[in-house]
Amino acid sequence: MQQKYFFIYLLKITLINSEAILPHLPGLIRTSSKPTIAYSPSIINTNMKKFIIIACISIFAIGCSNQPASKDSTGAASPASDSSADKIDYAYLPEGHQPDYWDRGDQKKVALVLKSLKAFENGNVEECLVPFADSVAWSFDGFDAKISKDTLRAMLKDAWNHMSSVKIRMNDYEAVISKDKKEEFVTLWYKQITTDKKGKTDSIACVDDLKIENGKITVLDEKSRKYPVKK
Predict the structure, then answer these.
(1) No. of helices (H) and no. of strands (E), the chain
(2) Bridge-partner residues for 190, per DSSP?
(3) Where are the domains of the chain?
(4) Cys staple from 128: which of 50, 75, 119, 136, with CB 3.0 to 4.6 Å?
(5) In this structure, what are the phi and psi dihedrals at residue 32, rounded to the nearest 5 degrees?
(6) Residue 222's closest CA among 134, 159, 150?
(7) What is the radius of gyration, based on Cα positions, of the chain?
């Protein structure tokens, strides 16, 4: 930056001096008593132009070399690569894998799971079971077992025998896949409102984790809690 200002200053001085001296040079040359090379204003002007061009090129080159850091499309300066993840001190570590193990998964897997849940909401157990594998590891409060698809069918039909309606209010969902591409899950967060045959209504907050293998649901892990009764 200092070099840039120096060249600008030098250019200004040169232009000022050239304006002051050039008109008097012919007379100074004629009155000189010593042999000298004859200089004309046109020659001096040509040399001055060359110097000015060189000075301008130098200023331009210095200006380019002093450009600020590149910015992205929003105008913010591009940050340096962030390696802070390597420095995170986790109070707990997952038992089965390293931290930062998951990437965003395939949204088609989300659609697959949602379609199954929608079928259950509508009381269509057979359609609900379409994406499930022949055996399923199913767990919920007080239950944890690997069962056949036929057993799952019987349990879902029995649940519907005690209900008159089910309503689902979806909060969110997410698909994730492990970095080694060996595990894939879909998680749902929703509110389930059930009304039994006697007209009693319960509202339950649900979080479902479903493992997808070869396009089929092999694990259904349900966590739920009842909402407090309104007074």
Answers:
(1) 6, 7
(2) 170, 206
(3) 2-65, 102-226
(4) 119
(5) -70, 135
(6) 159
(7) 40
d(CA 224, CA 14): 84
Helix (H, G, I), strand (E, B) or coil at 45: helix
pLDDT reported for residue 231? 76
Enter the pTM of the model: 0.63
CATH of 102-226, one of 1.10.287.370, 2.20.25.90, 3.10.450.50, 2.30.170.40: 3.10.450.50
Per residue in 79-95, pLDDT (tens digit) is 554 555 568 999 999 99
Residue 40 has pLDDT above 60, yes or no: no
What tokens appear for 225 in the block? 């809690």
Determine the Cα–Cα distance for residues 31 and 112; give it in Å rounded to an integer.
101
CA–CA distance, 186 with 171 (Å, rounded to integer): 14
Confidence of residue 228 (pLDDT cuts 50, 70, 90): confident
Separation of first and last alpha carbons in the chain: 72
The Cα 129–Cα 137 span in angstroms is 14
Residue 124, token pair as written in the block:
């269509």
Burial of 197 (0-12, 13-18, 19+ CB in 10 A): exposed
Structure tokens at 44: 């001096």
